[in-house]
Amino acid sequence: MRTSRRPARAMAALTAASALVLAACGSGEEGADPNGEITLTVNVFGDSFSLPDNRSLYDEYERQHDNIKIVENRSDFGTHHQNLQARLTAGSGAADLEVIEVGQISGYIGQPDKFVNFRDQNVDTGQWTESTVQRASTVDGNTLIGLPTDIGGLAICYRKDLFAAAGLPTERDEVSALWSTWEDYVAVGDRFLSKSPKVKWFDAGGHVFTGIIGNEEETYYNAEGDLVVEENQAVRDAWDLSVQAIEKGQSAALAEFSPEWNTGFQKGQFATVTCPAWMMGYIQANAADTKGKWDIAKIPGGSGNWGGSYLTVPSQGANTEAAVELAKWLTAPEQNIKLFKMIGNFPSQTSTWTEPEVADYTSEFFSNAPAGKIFPESLENAPVQIYGPESGVIGNTFAGALNSVEQGTDPDEAWESAMNDIKAAAGEG
Amino acid sequence: MTADLDHRGAPPGQTRRRPPGQASPHRQAWRSRLYRLDVKGSPYLYIFPFFGLFAVFGLFPLIYTAVISTTSWSPRRPGSEDTSVGLENYQNLLGDENFHNALLNTFGIGLVSTVPQLLLALGIAHLLNYKLRGRLFLRMGVLVPYITSVAAVALIFNQMFARDFGLLNWFLQPFIENPIDWRAEKWSSWLAVSAMVTWHWTGYNALIYLAAMQTVPYELYESASIDGASKWQQFWHVTIPSLRPTIIFTVVVSTIGALQLFAEPFLFDTTRNNNGGSERQFQTVVLYLYQQFWTNGRYGYGAAIAWTLFLVTVVVALANFLLVRRIRSAED
């Protein structure tokens, strides 16, 4: 227990009015009658459990539970996590279920009393790897604030048609053989550009950077939780190689997840993109017309992870019991397999990877690439990455800094200001 | 104020008590006390709703923000809300290059958007003041950008100022070698953000000017034209001085608005951490506040930025007021 709770209470009063408004919007506060009609709200920042035109999973649950209605609210990545923090601090307004991205979750672990503890909810945590569960747990391991949904095994998605036009092989095994390392990947980029000067090699330097460090265990923090980003040679190497590729003109310099980035997919402005499993969903949704032009090859370095999410139940909700049941159901292996086939989100339970439904799955959109084989392979040797409270912030800072290099800033200056920003953000102030 | 009312209210109370043969003096005293209470108290009652709401939504947040600004509160570090750091946040802020940059951006964008905005508004109002066909329609028309949501405006402007398939770059194609990356440079991003602000607010200010212009007595123009003043001279020497209070009002309001600019740069930004451009090219003070508070979870530091901005706004608004008040001094 903390010594004084007064500021927290005052903050609650301060936001009382907005909380009222939010609660009104959130609905689902009808009452505690367990058999009465319950509306459960799910806040997501992307295609976690549904596609904009497909909510079959929710429908299925509603059919099984007569008294439950599910309402999903979407917002973009940044807004989603900021709103969640605001509502947790205010003490009301959060949805019954909230998705938190893996890079962000360590920022919420310090507030375990704000979430339902899944350790008390008869969850079989053995279905996930220890490290996956550990990331959403307090240091003592007694509190688990979220259930893992998907996991972002890494691959490279590439445009077969653009490869053919540049005289590169198009078969996925041959393509995978082109780059056993990230240095090779950049070298192939040179070859590509010499034949196809109008199309860029990749979408954004930040994504190459993320791909490279996706194969590192220790990136921004060490196991003790100290910020080591500046001294870490692996990070510096990833930066240098990304800068090198940018300076060779390989980057389309499209800010990730911006409208222009979406347009880039549609217009084929770049030939490859660092492709965690969930990126398959993004590409299909953003550029439906490019169906059949894509294929999936192995990630340079052979393995890596980027992203994935956790499903949490904020303890402030009126229907936490029903919400926990839904959370358990949504993260169960059967549902994760359905989501993989529907959206591309790769299941976090290792046991599912050998199920024929997953292992034999091929994606029609990506020229029947055996996605069910590629992603587990990438994850098999992937290190367990260490995250800290500001990992998400640091990752975004690097993405911005590399974008500034793409816009013409001197790389050393960009590195310098990124380091200053990171120290300010992760400092004590 | 209350003293005044008291004086004004008391004498009638005294005189009314005089006519004899009415209710008991005791009862009269009671009524008179009630009456005095009414006169004294009811003004407070009438203004209470405003001050009550202000206390809850204005004063309390202001004070509470000041309290937070002396802590190192971050929701990501448990217990930090009780860690007092005194004025350290303010001290750090003074030496924070990103804050200096945000101030520069705010004043820069403010200048680039406010000045043309008010000049344009003045010109448009002047034109609308002539006898035109479909005058009402035109006058309502200039208000359309104002009633459009900023988010919708940003959507369109984002397309226009896009690097690869943007409308502006398409127009500029014959004149420039490479398409302009509007977000990459300070000047170009300031221009884009200012364009949005100007588009949104010009019509609003034009209508305010127009309303003021219509109160200028016609005789002034008549005598001016008899004295041989041209239309331009009339505008300069009759219209502008008559609009002085209105101009002061719009300048002060626009300045405060410019200092608190947020929605436009926020929506023009494509970074995922509200950086206002990859190198904070167009990160305004409020956007920096937002980034530190929400994206980076630094509640204490964010609160310090908020208070500093509040003080800066008061000082600038005052300076502005004093400056614009001199508009007419040439006339006197």
Describe the protein's architecture and organization.
The complex is a heterodimer of chains A (429) and B (332). By secondary structure, chain A is α/β, with parallel strands linked by helices. Helices cover 45% and strands 14% of the residues of chain A. Chain A has two domains: 180 residues, 3-Layer(aba) Sandwich (D-Maltodextrin-Binding Protein, domain 2), CATH 3.40.190; 225 residues, Periplasmic binding protein-like II (D-Maltodextrin-Binding Protein, domain 2, 3-Layer(aba) Sandwich), CATH 3.40.190. Chain A is built from 19 helices and nine strands. In chain A, strands 1, 2, 3, 4, 5, 6, 7, 8 and 9 form a nine-stranded mixed β-sheet that branches. Chain A starts with 5 loop residues before the first helix and ends with a helix. The N terminus of chain A is likely disordered. Helix content of chain B is 71%, strand content 0%. Chain B has 15 helices and no strands. In chain B, helix 1 runs antiparallel to helix 2, helix 4 packs parallel to helix 9 and helix 7 packs across helix 9. The longest helix of chain B is centred in the N-terminal third of the chain and has 44 residues. At the A-B interface, helix 1, helix 4, helix 12, helix 18 and helix 19 of A face helix 2 and helix 3 of B.
Task: Summarize this structure briefly.
Chain A has 429 residues and is α/β, with parallel strands linked by helices. Chain A is 45% helix and 14% strand.
Secondary structure layout:
The complex is a heterodimer of chains A (429) and B (332).
Chain A: H1 6-14, H2 16-26, E1 38-44, H3 56-64, E2 68-74, H4 77-90, E3 97-101, H5 102-109, H6 130-135, E4 146-159, H7 160-165, H8 172-178, H9 182-195, E5 200-202, H10 205-213, H11 233-247, H12 259-267, E6 270-276, H13 279-286, E7 294-298, E8 305-312, H14 320-330, H15 333-342, E9 346-347, H16 356-359, H17 371-380, H18 391-406, H19 411-426
Parallel strand pairs in A: 1-2, 1-3, 5-6
Antiparallel strand pairs in A: 3-8, 4-6, 4-7, 4-8, 4-9
Helix pairs in contact in A: 5-18, 10-11, 10-18, 18-19
Chain B: H1 2-17, H2 25-68, H3 88-94, H4 97-128, H5 135-141, H6 144-147, H7 150-160, H8 167-172, H9 186-213, H10 218-226, H11 231-242, H12 244-259, H13 263-268, H14 285-295, H15 299-324
Helix pairs in contact in B: 1-2, 2-15, 4-9, 4-12, 4-14, 7-9, 12-15, 14-15
